[in-house]
Structures are given as structure tokens and as C-alpha cells.
Write a sequence for this structure.
């Protein structure tokens, strides 16, 4: 853990910023999970609600970015402290982007037909979502708790999400060849699955920033 500063008010500001970013991360995870639930059950009402709620994440991003900028302007931190605040800003941007990707899943859910997805495909998508959610949660915990090892674990496990993504895409392409009447829905679903993979990538970005914040060094 980084040492405390002589200026206790500065430490308090950093702690509040960390706590607020953690709360933003919780909201981003909730948005992601709602988007997936809407997708797999074709709950268009839920999809519409979470699409509308994305503006709340946008507002959080603006507020937290302004707070971080104010800390920099008022405290004029030295190099190591400045790097810590900049890591916070990078995490805020990644969380806002996760919300955008979840919103896109919601919009594509609304555009799809109401036909149910094959159970095998649903199971694979659920497994991928479980991996991506675990990655994001671990990355956020690494950030809030300044746990460098958790951050490293997120980076190491990213290949699992990529492998699952490739398997799902291959299965869906085969299904598209067998059922041309549902091609439009499968195209929407392909984009949704890609968004899940990209959310996991943003989790890795959060973990890298968390590691830098915790140790002062990038992940090797």
C-alpha cells in the first residue's frame, strides 16, 4: 500500500475518489449484468431501462473526471502522486466505456426478434459473461484494495475470455449456415458477444491501472 501523505486532506480526497470510482464500477457491473439478462431472456423492457440508465454512468464519469482534475489543479502532486490520479482517470474512462458497451447490448436486444436462443449457445454465453464479470470484479477489488497480485491475476486470465469468445463465434457461424431465417438476429448476437469480450478487455485495463496505482510500476 502507498504510504500516507503529510497532507491528510490530500489523502482524504484520494480516498473519496477511490471510493466513488469503486461505486461507479459497481454500477457498471450492474448495467452489464442487466444487459445480459435482457439479452438472454429477450426482456426488452429491461433492455430499454438499462439503456436509459446509461446517462447516469456518463454523469458519474463527468463528475469523477472533474474531481480528479480538481485534485491535480489544487494539490499539484509530484510525479508519483500525479501518476496515481491519472490512473484513476483512466479507470473512470474504462468504466464509462463498459457502460457504453452494455448499452449497445441492450439496443441490439431490442432490435432482435423474440425467438429464444439455443440452450447450448445460452450456456456458452453465460459462461463467458461469468468470466468477464469475475475479471471486472477482481480488477475493481484490486483497485480499491491496492492489491497488485489481484491485478496480475486479471491480466493472466484474459486468455480464457478470448478462447471462449472464439468458440462462441465459431458455433454461431455454423448456426447461421443452418438457419438463414435467423441471420439478422445472429448478426446482432455476434456484436453482443464481441462487446462482452471488449468489456473483459476493459477489465484488464482497469487491472493494469490498479497495479500501477498500487506499485508505481506497470504489470510486467
Amino acid at each position: 500500500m502507498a504510504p500516507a501523505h503529510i497532507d491528510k486532506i490530500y489523502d482524504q480526497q484520494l480516498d473519496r475518489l477511490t471510493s466513488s470510482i469503486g461505486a461507479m464500477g459497481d454500477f457498471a457491473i450492474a448495467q452489464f449484468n442487466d444487459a445480459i439478462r435482457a439479452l438472454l431472456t429477450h426482456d426488452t423492457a429491461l433492455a430499454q431501462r438499462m439503456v436509459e440508465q446509461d446517462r447516469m454512468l456518463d454523469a458519474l464519469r463527468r463528475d469523477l473526471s472533474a474531481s480528479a482534475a480538481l485534485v491535480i489543479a489544487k494539490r499539484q502532486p509530484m510525479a508519483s502522486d500525479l501518476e496515481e490520479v491519472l490512473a484513476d482517470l483512466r479507470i473512470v474512462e474504462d468504466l464509462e466505456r463498459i457502460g457504453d458497451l452494455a448499452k449497445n447490448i441492450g439496443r441490439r436486444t431490442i432490435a432482435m426478434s423474440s425467438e429464444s436462443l439455443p440452450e447450448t449457445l445460452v450456456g456458452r454465453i453465460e459462461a463467458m459473461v461469468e468470466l468477464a464479470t469475475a475479471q471486472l470484479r477482481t480488477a475493481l477489488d484490486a483497485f480499491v484494495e491496492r492489491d497488485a497480485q489481484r491485478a496480475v491475476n486479471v491480466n493472466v486470465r484474459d486468455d480464457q475470455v478470448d478462447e471462449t469468445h472464439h468458440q462462441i463465434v465459431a458455433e454461431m457461424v455454423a448456426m447461421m449456415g443452418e438457419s438463414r431465417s435467423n441471420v439478422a438476429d445472429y448478426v446482432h448476437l455476434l456484436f453482443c458477444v464481441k462487446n462482452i469480450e471488449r468489456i473483459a478487455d476493459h477489465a484488464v485495463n482497469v487491472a493494469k491501472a490498479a497495479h500501477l496505482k498500487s506499485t508505481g510500476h506497470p504489470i510486467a
Summary: The radius of gyration is 19 Å. The chain is about 85% helix and 0% strand.
